[in-house]
Amino acid sequence: MSDSRKCIEVVAAVIHWKGSILCMQRGENKRSYISKKWEFPGGKVEAGETEKEALAREIKEELHLDIAVGEKIITVHHSYPDFDLVMHAFDCHTSHMSEPDIVRTEHLDHCWLAPNDQEFQALDWAGADVPIVEALMVTS
Questions:
Q1: By three-state DSSP, how is residue 117 classified?
Q2: Residue 3 scores a pLDDT above 80
Q3: pTM of the model as a whole
Q4: 3-state class (DSSP) for residue 106
Q5: Based on the number of CB atoms within 10 Å of its own CB, is 102 exposed (0-12), middle (13-18) or buried (19 or more)?
């Protein structure tokens, strides 16, 4: 990663529910390489927050969902055409007995899929999320 490029540090939630993982489809974006791509939800860490606190806050804000943030799965370093990204992905769970009601404030669509499901692997994932997908396929 270049020193002169913008580097963004974010957190991502791999939210488990009944053997499936929450997959979110990004909204339309002027950057074609992330527009309508699938991702794990999350966002930026604000000053004074831990990574886990930021993740719980972002999921509450974006999806109106309460989660328990567990252990870090992987840290991804990815270079997009106009910025670099460092993304910390965490195992997360929701305590809902029935399918959680996901409120999409920033995303087009969502689905719950098992990591070993061909549909999960076939989603058009954002580049930075691909290493997380690969890590989940190995551990499932």
A1: coil
A2: no
A3: 0.92
A4: coil
A5: buried
